[in-house]
Amino acid sequence: MKIPRSFEEILEHFGGLIDEETAKLLESYAEGRVTVNKCGRVFEGKVLRVFPVRYFDKNGRKGKVGSAIIDGIGRVNFWNEAAEVIESGDIIEGVRIRVRGYSRGGEIHVNSLFDVEVFPDFLSVSEIAEKEGERVNVKGFVTGLGEPEEANEIYISDETGRIRVFLENKSFYFAVDIGSYVEIYNALVRDSEVYVDRNSRFIVGE
């Protein structure tokens, strides 16, 4: 007998005995995106979108909350201390995170910084061509600059090769020089080249 793994297979297997939220959770278990330990559920996935932290004062209780959409999991809310991972810029589109939290109202809630782990998951330059149409994270050193009149392309290299990077935001071009170290998050791969658009993050290191 085939073990049900997909959302549709799980719903059919249980014949209406479980609701859709439970079926989604079981699908996550089957794919290894959710595990359980004695402190609660552990959820893991790629960050698709991040929402800014907002502050609140309700019935004399002050606090803050930020949230993110995680692939295969849904919305994860980071409360008070945990919201600092968004304010610090550690959680951005494209990174993979692992959180320990609890489910309520169809969303995941996290309260502690100690319950959040972030994994950038950078690809090497040589791996980029295999990810056509996908969004990736890549890092390297600037080894070439396009024409300053256009200010829309640079070249970065690592130990595996060199790749062309197109920049939607021209300010990124003027923020680097030959030898600058850069980290690029959530960039689109197109024709074996990297496109940095409004959904990407471009960080210049020292």
In short:
By secondary structure, the chain is mainly beta.
Detailed description of the structure:
Helices cover 14% and strands 48% of the residues. It has 206 residues and is mostly beta strands. It has 2 domains: 32-119, OB fold (Dihydrolipoamide Acetyltransferase, E2P), CATH 2.40.50.140; 125-204, Beta Barrel (OB fold (Dihydrolipoamide Acetyltransferase, E2P)). Helix 1 (7-14) crosses helix 2 (20-30).
Properties at a glance:
about 210 residues, mainly beta, OB fold (Dihydrolipoamide Acetyltransferase, E2P), 2 domains, 5-stranded mixed barrel, about 15% helix
Gross CATH architecture of the largest domain: Beta Barrel
Could you name the CATH homologous superfamily of the largest domain? Nucleic acid-binding proteins
Shape summary: globular
The computed structural class is mainly beta
In total, the number of strands is 13
CATH C-level category of the largest domain: Mainly Beta
What share of the residues does DSSP label as strand, in percent? over 45%
Report on the biggest sheet: 5 strands, mixed, barrel
**Uncertain spans:** none
Run of helices and strands: HHEEEEHEEEEEEHEEE
Count of individual helical segments = 4
How would you summarize the topology of this molecule?
Layout: H1 7-14, H2 20-30, E1 34-37, E2 40-58, E3 61-70, E4 74-79, H3 84-87, E5 96-104, E6 107-110, E7 116-119, E8 135-145, E9 153-158, E10 161-167, H4 170-174, E11 181-190, E12 193-196, E13 201-204
Parallel strand pairs: 4-6, 10-12
Antiparallel strand pairs: 1-2, 2-3, 2-5, 3-4, 5-6, 5-7, 8-9, 8-11, 9-10, 11-12, 11-13
